[in-house]
Queue: 2 jobs
Job 1
Amino acid sequence: MMYKVRFHLARGEHFMHWQVKSQNMTWYHDPSKVQLALFDCKLAVQPSTAKKIHDGACKTVCAWIQCDEVQVLPLNRIGKNETDWNVRFNPRINPEWVDRYGNVMSGEQFPIIFTDDRSLFVMGDAHECQDYDNVIRAYLLNEQSNEQQD
């Protein structure tokens, strides 16, 4: 299944929550209560819309993370380390996804991106777990199994 994940800035109940959309469902997650792990990700942007916003037009949805899997984890389940790096999108500043140095990241693909409050981090190669991808997936499977037993 394909998901689109973005930070929801529209007024209302889910203002400043992570929005996760599948083909026919939408979920919202409070970044102060959970952490998201996104797998097989691509940083997507609609260039013409982002450019218009950069030039002064009203903001509208024009960027998201496209991913194959989303896992909702307890807060601070994934700890940042020195090899993880931040990516961000703000079309008022730059109409592209960028890293902390301003390098354009739009269209780039990454195995794992995770949230830390309202920020996004690409998981680096030398994380504390050799196979962090499988560790997180195993954690989720264990949680689902526990829920089914209750």
Job 2
Amino acid sequence: MNPWYTRNMPFFFLTFFFPPLALLLLVWQWDKFTTDRGIKLFFTVGMTVFIVFGLLPRGSLPVVLPIIFGLIALKLVLNMFKRKTG
């Protein structure tokens, strides 16, 4: 059974109000998102870019972007290790 946040409407509201959190959930739980992964990824990245470039205070971009990309890279590395050992 898929978690509640993988359905379209909860994910839309989650993405609209908390885009970085939705992006991390999407990347972290990629296997649980069985339908419309591409559309959800496009919408989430778009909203995250809007939030990062539009609403954050000036000067916080060099701090926020490496954290987001570092977490995504960590997830990709963990997936790679899981595939090699499993």
